[in-house]
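Duplicate of #3305? Posting structure anyway:
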């Protein structure tokens, strides 16, 4: 300020609020309203929603103010009071946080078990803490009861039908010594859905048993719709599935991968139907082509007949799995073999 003719003239005035005071004021006056169908203050929401909000704020703070710092984030039983679908979302948030910070959580929920690195799971029992050495230890401490066929399983391969399970058991064992060993000792279990619509339910059961899941599904509408439902629910990702695609075919199923010579005599001898018909040489999927040929021959075709034929073909393949795949149509199967071998290698590295 300057003084002119005995008067102080003010040239500038500044009003400042220190950051600390600003934060204190916001804490007292800020209201958080969450609309999950009904706009409500956060303080009146359930414990689960409040926990999710706290974790969201924590993630935001770690992203905006970390400035190269690494935090240790401790979370106690994050699954408490949460709907199952919210638990899946919460797991994804925690996985994001663990990419930049150390996350330590206590849990009784199998969904939060680190299957990629078993030793990352610390078992606290009898006033002692130690890294887990195998999945069965974690199952025992969490009280998880796996079915007999999953008791030793690390990876479960899900296929659509029982005939697919029978055939792929032999085909995979013949294609890879590593996979054969894993199937023989129970590390890989093959299970079937009895209908593609059961996929999400089945994957949920397998996750509860602390097993990794991989799927080999028909490349048709049912297979894709079932996978998308499980994906949206957070049960599967694109890395967890192979479809039985065949080049030049808009839809395909496992039987489309087989060389016709494997079962042509079986169909002729049991049903008096020849597969040399032009109707069997279209680019429609196997079950549709078989239906067209059977009807052309004046034969009945229904779900029961289809199941019988698929079971008989699977039995043939299980006895002689060599040279049964069509060389031009087997690429999805070969990709499945590589994927399963890679997943077995990942498991071995984590032990």
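Output from current build:
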């Amino acid at each position: 300020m300057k003084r002119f003719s005995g008067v102080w003239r003010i040239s500038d005035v500044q009003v400042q609020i220190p950051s600390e005071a600003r934060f204190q004021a916001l804490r007292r006056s800020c209201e958080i309203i969450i609309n999950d169908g009904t706009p409500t203050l956060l303080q009146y929401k359930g414990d689960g929603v409040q926990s999710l909000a706290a974790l969201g704020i924590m993630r935001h703070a770690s992203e905006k103010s970390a400035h190269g710092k690494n935090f240790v984030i401790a979370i106690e039983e994050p699954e408490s009071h949460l709907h199952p679908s919210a638990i899946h979302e919460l797991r994804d948030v925690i996985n994001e946080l663990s990419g930049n910070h150390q996350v330590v959580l206590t849990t009784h929920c199998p969904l939060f078990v680190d299957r990629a690195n078993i030793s990352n799971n610390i078992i606290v029992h009898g006033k002692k803490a130690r890294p887990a050495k195998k999945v069965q230890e974690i199952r025992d401490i969490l009280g998880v009861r796996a079915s007999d066929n999953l008791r030793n399983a690390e990876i479960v391969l899900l296929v659509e039908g029982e005939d697919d399970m029978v055939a792929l058991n032999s085909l995979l064992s013949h294609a890879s010594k590593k996979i054969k060993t894993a199937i023989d000792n129970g590390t890989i279990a093959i299970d079937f859905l009895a209908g593609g619509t059961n996929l999400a339910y089945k994957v949920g059961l397998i996750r509860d048993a602390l097993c990794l899941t991989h799927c080999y599904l028909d490349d048709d509408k049912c297979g894709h719709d079932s996978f998308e439902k499980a994906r949206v629910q957070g049960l599967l990702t694109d890395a967890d599935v192979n479809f039985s695609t065949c080049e030049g075919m808009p839809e395909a199923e496992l039987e489309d991968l087989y060389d016709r010579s494997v079962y042509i005599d079986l169909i002729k001898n049991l049903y008096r139907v020849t597969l040399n018909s032009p109707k069997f040489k279209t680019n429609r999927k196997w079950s549709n082509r078989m239906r067209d040929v059977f009807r052309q021959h004046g034969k009945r075709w229904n779900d029961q007949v289809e199941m019988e034929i698929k079971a008989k073909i699977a039995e043939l393949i299980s006895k002689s799995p060599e040279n049964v795949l069509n060389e031009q149509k087997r690429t999805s199967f070969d990709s499945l073999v590589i994927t399963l071998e890679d997943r077995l290698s990942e498991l071995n590295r984590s032990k």
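Confirmed duplicate; merging threads. Residues 148-342 form one domain. The first helix runs from residue 19 to 29.
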